Amino acid sequence: MAVNLFYFLVFPGLLFVGITGALLSWFDRKITARVQFRKGPPVLQPFYDFFKLLLVKETILPKKGSPLIFLLAPIFSVFGATMAGVFILLPLFHITTGFKGDLIVIFYLLTIPSFSYIVGSLASGNPLAAVGGSREMKLILSYELTFLLFVAGVIMKAGQQFDLYSIIQAQQAGSPFIGTVSGVLLFIVGIFCIQAKLALVPFDIPEAEAEITEGIFIEYSGSSYAMIKLAKHIMLFILPCLATALLLSGFRLDGINILWSILKVLGIVLLLTLIRNTNPRIRIRQAVNFFMIWMNLIAVIAIVLIAFGY
């Protein structure tokens, strides 16, 4: 029990993924600033923002809606993100436990933050939050099928293996899956799914500051909003780690390979940052069409190529 609590609360759980995710958030903001010819924030700025919201700012409850559900939703989002992070990072750090890193379990855990945001927005009683929640639901329905096809393609390439341990070992014993045509196509699909899961431009439609003024988060403040920030920091770290495990042969924790493992994650975050800084926000209908038609088509082509050995 003590070991499991350590995994969940310290390493590779809440403390580790929270701190690392905050540092990646700084990296994302710094690159964004450089693209826009600005200096950017100091390295500790995400920590300042988090603790200011957590300890200083007042949590204001909406007059209408359900206060209990409104307050519990951010906590569930952190819980889901942390659990997914633990199950993703245990295989990456070669920590053997009773759980084998089943991709189906991870797939469902990664949906908890998004559904928590929807429940919280609807519990706020704010019509703009309801619009944001509606957009989030449509976005989930569009990219989750694509993400499932992406995962299915990786499982096929790994010889019908469903757990991350076996998928990582299959790549380290041979070559990374991204070294094939189907692997490149799956990487493209995976990157856009991650972009949508993180609600980064061009898929930040549920928040859309200029249209619905933060949308699903419009009523959140203080410690509850700090929990949302924490969940987003965690997701910014664990989703690139998942892509690294599925297509880039995971982490090797010896010698120069440690640096190479770090650079894999940083490279994916850099790619996500560049995408969001070079594209405008699209409408929800465009996002649905993008995933349901084009990304699904690319994913199906990749699966067909895998079936033929490519």
Q: What is the secondary structure topology, with strand pairs?
A:
Blueprint: H1 2-9, H2 14-35, H3 45-55, H4 67-92, H5 103-109, H6 112-124, H7 127-157, H8 164-173, H9 181-197, H10 209-212, H11 222-247, H12 257-277, H13 284-307
Could you name the key traits of this structure?
single chain, 310 residues, mainly alpha, globular, 0% strand
How does this model look, in words?
With 310 residues, this protein is mainly alpha-helical. It has one domain (2-307). It has 13 helices and no strands.
Strand fraction equals under 5%
Overall 3D form:
globular
| Percentage of residues in helical conformation | over 70%
Overall average pLDDT? 92
Poorly predicted spans? none
User: Strand tally, please?
Assistant: 0
Compact description:
The protein is mainly alpha-helical.
